Amino acid sequence: MVENNVEFVHTNNVTGMWLVTSISIFMESLRLALLSLRSNKLRTLLTLLGIIVGVTSVIAVMTILSGLDQTVATAFSSQGSTVFSVAKRPLVITSREDFIKYNKRKDVTKEDADAIQRLCRTCWRVGMAANGRGLVKFGDKRSEDVAVRGLTLSMFDIENVTLQAGRMWTVNEGDAGHNVAVIGTDLIQNLFDDRAPEDIIGQEIRVDGIPYTILGVAYPFGKVLGFSRDNFVYIPYQAGQKMFGARDSITVHIQVQSSDQFESATDEVRTIMRNRRGKVPSDEDDGASIESQDAFITIYKNATSGIYFATFGVAIISLVVGGIVVMNIMLVSVTERTKEIGLRKAVGARQADILRQFLIESVMVTIIGGMIGVLTGYGLAYVLSLAMGFPLLFSIQSALLGVTVSFIVGLVSGIYPAWQASKLDPIDAMRNE
Fold first, then answer.
1. What range defines the domain where residue 129 resides?
2. Beta carbons of 166 and 182 less than 8 angstroms apart
3. How confident is the model at residue 8 (pLDDT cuts 50, 70, 90)?
4. Are residues 351 and 267 in the same domain?
5. What is the pTM of this model?
6. Pick from 105, 119, 255, 433: CA 20 to 30 A from residue 217's CA?
7. Could you tell me if 276 and 141 lie in one domain?
8. Which 8-state DSSP code applies to residue 204?
């Protein structure tokens, strides 16, 4: 029993001494690596550049796209999965052939909206929108290409529109088609010199020459991808019909009470529209486009996935070039320090010691480059986020990814030079001039 305890204590002491020795050797190698990098500042800087560019591009793009993802998701999913629309044409048309095909459909009309409201059991709210664009004037000031929308009152609830000043129009004002309006905050800036919203209530603006009295000012929606969502005039649906023409196709918006009812509601609406269009089961086209805001998000993700791949391609090329530069610099370093290597081997340095020394130097330079790349990547993302107006999302995972990739590049790039250094014969190395 005593012998076992003595053997156990002896084993622990040996393990502890080995651990202390290993840490001491590693710290000494680290110190020598830092001294070597400091003594060749220009060479070290040139070695860092490839790594910095690669890591910066990855960090910047990942950070920017994370902010954009959140902005787009918030903007287009504000109602969650409870709102969808029915229109003559889809939100996005990608070819001339599709445009011609969709234009042949019948217009979506108020009668279609009434039928949906009457027949759809899971539809909670139904609203109508007649959409156009126009020139808005106040005095001698003008704002062009403003979104002008004729809306039913239910659209304010469906689209979560809230007012910071004034009021919406009443049911009687809407039914009578009064020329009243709710405007977005961009028009306050463009037409009223940023006056307080309360001060412009009751003012009269002209939309394509037609006078409208301002009843309310909506809270700002903000920007998406640099485009403002607050450059609009909302008018009663009946007034919009007079402005755009009663024969133009409208958009019907439907909201369900919970996301669980979304699929059944879209199925009901699709059936209603197919019946009203006289479609038979063999007809592939429903006669109208039934879509949610998820369509925008899908298109956005498809577009940004290409940016991700392109950026990672550039980053990989930069890192490969950086790795080649590191390898070349380390080979030059081995050549320059041949006598030093021979001397170290002559006084007892093992092959593993030399191998470790050069590997640590290689990894150190790439890790430093990776950390600088992480900082510059976040800095670049910060500047771009301010310019484009979207939130900046710092990610620990992306920072760890940058440093980890840098470590791997340094390790792979340093293996061959370190192996070459470790194989040098001490006598031949000391004779080298």
1. 80-292
2. yes
3. very low
4. no
5. 0.65
6. 255
7. yes
8. E
